[in-house]
Amino acid sequence: MYKTTGRECFFYILRKWKIMLSLGIIVGILLGGYTLAKTIINWDRNKSEIEEAQAAYDEMTLYLSGVQDFYNKQIDDKQRLLEEYRSSLDSNPILSYDSTNIGMAYADIVLDAFNSDGSAREITDDYLNVFRTVVEDNLDWEAIAQNGNLDEEYVKDLYGAWYWGSTNRMMRVRFYSDNETKATAMLEEYLAQAEAMHDLLVRQMGEFEMSSLNILSRTDNDGGFASIQQNILNKVDGYQGDIDALNETIAGLPYPAVPPQIPTPGKIVLSVGKHAAVGFGAVVVALIVLYYLLFYLNGRLHSTSESEYYSGSAAISYEPDSKKKNKGIDKWIASMDTKTLLYPQAEAVHRVLLNAKLVAPEAEKIMFTGLDSDKEIQDLKNILTEIKGMSFKFGLEKNLLTNRESLDHLAVYDAVVLVEKLDKTDVELLKKEIELIRLSGKKIVGVLMVR
User: Fold this and answer.
1) By CB distance 3.0 to 4.6 Å, which of 177, 293, 411, 424 could disulfide with 182?
2) With contact defined as beta carbons under 8 Å apart, do 100 and 221 qualify?
3) How confident is the model at residue 150, as a pLDDT?
4) Parallel/antiparallel/unpaired status of strands 102-114 and 120-121
5) Domain annotation for the chain: domains and CATH numbers
């Protein structure tokens, strides 16, 4: 049993390229045309809805773009402040102070308030808040900073005030510095300025008297100052947190989904081309699969090697003179398949006769059998008539299995040349024909393979 090869299958499929290309183009054109028609119909049907949706989308997008630009400006401002703050940390003297050996100064401010009739007035946290706010808003912070040998921008970080006491509420004021002398100097400047604001404070709070008690200073390890240093560093995270929050806000802006787009000529051409290419490719792939299956299932003769295997003689491929000569792709496929041994019809016939002379020199009359049409027989007869220098007599007969007269004539011939058609000859019929010839005692001296 002859074993077909992948190479034979490959060239069998290649020989079908015209069919694959033609059907692929037809289906591609049909699918592309369907896509074009569908696009135009849908556009005409939904034109008003698409335009309204597009207008609403554009309006909402324009509004949200403005909102996003606003947030982006805030992010830029925050980013600039963050970079400036980071660069200022290197020159911040507070971060260089030792929290385990920090100077500090305290004082308690006691207020005695009076009503308009001269009676004592209760000191509440709200009353102290007014006092603290007025004082802090009117302090000369630069003068306080100079007493601590600092720039004004840092002094407020070293200042603190809070309220305490259960019955007589009072306010404790505290200043830090790298030593207690500077801290005390800043505290004393603060108290002096507060005393000088008496008239201003009276206008805001009513009559009162202020006294300063428990003025203390020391150098020690203080967790409160360590917290101040950490808060200064944490401002970096605060800026970054603000930036992250703004970015999250931008990410959460409710941008609408993109509405169906009005098909532009470019998009229509692209869509049509894409569907046409898909249709073409699908047809080509389907036909490749089909021809692959047919190669193994249709039982046809697909190569000269297969005919040589069954006939036991040399096979020569040719293209009939009556058929348009192969050009371009066809010629390349044929030459690659036969390894360039593809001859004109006359030369192929001459070569097969030379081979017959070598393998059966005693033969006097040779039968050419296998052709079905009178036109093919006449073309071959004309070529045989022109061949000179051969001692053979020739006879042309139709297929032995399908023509009774040809079978009756077999007895008068000494040898046989089979004429078979590539991809058309049925292998089982070919084997029966060969078996019939051998049973008749005739020798097969060659095979002409018609491509």
Assistant:
1) 177
2) yes
3) 92
4) antiparallel
5) 6-85+259-297 (no CATH), 101-220 (3.30.70.1130), 304-450 (3.40.50)
Rounded CA separation 107/160 (Å): 11
Phi-psi region of 389 (alpha: psi -120 to 50; beta: other; left: phi over 0): left
Taking the C-alpha atoms of residue 216 and residue 226, their distance in angstroms, rounded to an integer, is: 20
Q: How far is CA 101 from CA 74, 267, 381, 440, in A?
A: 40, 75, 124, 126
Q: b or e along 343-382 (b: 16 or more beta carbons within 10 Å of the residue's beta carbon)?
A: bebbebbbbbbebbbeebeebeebbbbbbeeeebbebbee
Round to whole Å and give the CA distance between 267 and 258.
16
116: left (phi over 0), alpha (psi -120 to 50) or beta: alpha
Element of type H or E holding 413: none
What local confidence, expressed as pLDDT, does residue 369 receive? 92
**pTM of the predicted structure, to 2 decimals:** 0.53
362, pLDDT greater than 70: yes
What is the Cα–Cα distance from 343 to 316, expressed in whole angstroms?
8
CB atoms within 10 A of CB 398: 20
Tell me whether strands 208-220 and 120-121 are parallel, antiparallel or unpaired: unpaired
Please count the residues of the chain. Answer: 451
Structure tokens at 271: 């869509």
